[in-house]
Amino acid sequence: MSGPLQGIRILDIATILAAPLAGTLMADFGADVVKAELPGAGDGLRNFPPFKDGKSIWWKAANRNKRFITLDLRKPEGAALLLKMLPKFDVLLENFRTGTLARWGLDKETLWQANPNLIILRATAFGQTGPYAAKPGFARIFEAMSGLAYITGEPDRSPMHNGYPIGDSIGGLTACNAVLMALLGRARGTITGGEEIDLSLTEATFRLLDSQTIQYDQLGEIPQRTGNASHYSAPANVFKTSDDQYVSLSGSTHAIFLGNARAIGRPELPDDPKFNSNQNRFTHRAEINEIYVDWFASHTQAEAIEAFEREKGTLAPIYSIAQIFEDPQFAARESIVPVQDDDFGEVRLQSVVPKLTNHPGKVRHTARSIGADNEAIYKEFLDLDRADLAELKEKNII
Question: Which residues are catalytic, by number?
Answer without folding.
Answer: 168
